[in-house]
Amino acid sequence: MLPQSLALTTHLPSSPFPTAHVNRGVSLILPKCPKTHKLSWLTKKNSCPGLSIRPPNCAISVVSPEPTQSELANDGKPFPAEVSRTIMELASVGTLSTLTEDGWPMGIGVRFAVDPEGTPLLCLNDSISKVSVNSKSSFHVQLEQCGVRTSQCTVQGVLVKPEDPKVLEKLQSVWKRRFGYDVDEHCLYAVSVEQLLQIEDLGEDGVWVSSSEYKLASPDPLRDFAERMITEINLHNMEDVIRFCNVYVDLNFRVSDARMLWVDRLGFDVRFWSSQKDVFEVRIPFPREVADEKGAKSSFNCMSQLAWEVERNFHALEFEKAKKLKKIMSKGRFEKVA
User: What one-character DSSP code corresponds to residue 244?
Assistant: First the structure.
């Protein structure tokens, strides 16, 4: 996998498992544009250098049968391996599936943490572990985004029981850091990652991620405050989100409603509605990659300012708009949620 940027340095110790072979309450309020046509920032030094000259292009979220890594990168989105690492970092409950002694598939919900390479660490009781240990297993994790999208990943591997005292000590430290309490070393198990299926939403095709890609990827740096950011934007700045769609996307209709779904270091996803109640989803990248909450807020503010200028013809349309849309077919479910 060709990384899009330098991976963040983790503060956790290196993974004790061998490589498999197969916040703060900072308010995010976008600046309200003045009702007069005279822009207040024209008399001031531009706080978004270069942005008013070359606005960001939009890339649309499209699910293809077998996308290549280069195609995924051109969408302005993190690679599936990075998305998977982010899901595993944010979630704390998953479903472990194995075969019982008589051949029946069985899935159980369990709490889990992950080590620095993303290996799932599970806390199991004896009745479950004796049946499943050293057997092929899958571990399914879901992350709901804004109440309308469910990103998920499924790890395929083998359920193993660590025995090395030093390894167990490290795993206990990982568990306590995640949940805030100690766990009995006899209850700790791990799922070795052979490969992983990452799916953007329910009912969509997925992308297979190799063990090496997954372990080398880093979780998104905005993950710990992404949900709070989009909640505040959807609550206080809905006009800006709608304007993003009308300005940065090539549409033959006006957007009647929109909500932000998720934000990461490369951009954000928006779901929007037409006046005919059709539902679409679009990916809008940031003008440049961001590394923290401050950078994301700055990019949002600059893009909001530029979109306001373009909408009121204070700025020429000097960029190519995105033309592909991902239409959400089961719109009834999402309209009910919205």
Answer: H
Residue 103 falls in which region: left (phi positive, over 0), alpha (psi -120 to 50) or beta: left
Spatial CA neighbour of 41 closest among 31, 28, 56, 53: 31
Cβ-Cβ contacts under 8 Å for 27 (sequence gap 6 or more) = 232
Q: Looking at the whole model, is its pTM more than 0.85?
A: no
Q: How far is CA 41 from the centre of its chain?
A: 33
Tell me 42's DSSP state.
Answer: G
- Measure the CA–CA gap between 308 and 127, rounded to whole angstroms: 61
Interhelix angle 238-248/293-311, rounded to 10 degrees, is: 60
Kindly give the interhelix angle for 226-236 and 293-311, rounded to the nearest 10 degrees: 30
- Name, in order, each residue with C-beta under 8 angstroms of 8's C-beta and a sequence gap of 6 or more: 218, 219, 221
CA dist 46 → 53, 146, 212 (Å): 11, 33, 44
Q: Are 121 and 190 in contact (CB under 8 A)?
A: yes
Domains and CATH numbers, the chain: 40-66+224-337 (3.20.180.10), 82-216 (2.30.110.10)
- Classify burial at 277, counting beta carbons within 10 Å of its beta carbon; exposed 0-12, middle 13-18, buried 19 or more: exposed
Tens of pLDDT, residue by residue, the chain (338 residues): 444 433 333 333 444 444 444 343 434 444 444 443 332 323 333 445 544 434 455 444 434 444 444 444 547 889 999 999 999 999 999 999 998 888 888 899 999 999 999 999 999 987 776 667 888 999 999 999 988 899 999 999 999 999 999 999 999 999 999 999 999 998 999 999 999 999 999 989 999 999 999 999 999 999 999 999 999 999 999 999 999 999 988 788 889 999 999 999 999 999 999 888 899 999 988 889 999 999 999 999 998 999 999 998 887 776 667 666 788 854 444 443 33
Sequence-distant (≥ 6) Cβ neighbours of residue 165 within 8 angstroms: none
Q: How far apart are the first and last CA of the chain?
A: 37
